[in-house]
From TrEMBL:
Signal peptide (UniProt feature, chain positions): none
GO molecular function: mRNA binding
GO biological process, one term: mRNA splicing, via spliceosome
Name of the protein in question: Uncharacterized protein
Organism: Oncorhynchus mykiss
Location of region: Disordered: 161-196
GO cellular component: catalytic step 2 spliceosome
Amino acid sequence: KTCQVSSPQQEAVETGVHLDPSLKEVTYNPTYETMFAPEFGPVNPYRSQQMAAPRNMLSGYAEPAHVNDFMFEQQRRTFSTFGYALDPSVDTTSQNSSNSYIGAVDEAEKKKCNSFSCVSLLGLTVFEVGPKKHDKRKKVQGGESDDIDNYLGPWAKYVDEKDGAKPSEEEQKELDEITAKRQKKGRNEEEAPAEEKTILHVKDAYDYQGRSYLHVPQDVGINLRTADIPDKCYLPKKQIHVWTGHTKVSCQWTPSDSSVCPRICPRSYS
């Protein structure tokens, strides 16, 4: 019996074979140059490198992957809050340095110092209430309890403790800013009283007899000067006028005879 074994289809070395970039599977062995050769065809010269990159969705190229839900949500929220997150393409099990993070690494490497110690914010996530705990501050050796003169006990000072109570230049600058803000808030600025003014919308404030437009009329058949209620009072039978205006407007009778009804608002009088 004879068995004939044929090698898979090979492409020509000189000419090559056209390969559709959208194919997911090929039935022959293309060369490396063919697989990673640039695409032929019309190119949009106005496209940037980011826009010309291959993508299967609007924001980029997404591939299926298995990620723990909690770890993914932790890094997503950390990136939204602090601006940095773990680089998924770097193995972070052996080392935890700035190379393992992407995003605002420079901001994360800044030290947060107080009067006791300085800690780095790198590696802090949104699920941690504060920086990771470091070694406790060391105290000066206080000797044995038998030595009464040299024994310090719990009253021993820290190694890096400063005896001076005067704040440093940076602390003094912060204190000055806080004091200036408090003084500015506590200062009551005196507001100038608003100027009261009225606008007269009639041609003349006095008639031909020298009477003011606020003069109580006496030729209407009713005594408008008295405070007594008339003998006959009737409900209104029709709507004569409606006063309209902006908010916070009140209609008041001026003077008491109700002969003039101005519209009074908090800013102006008309």
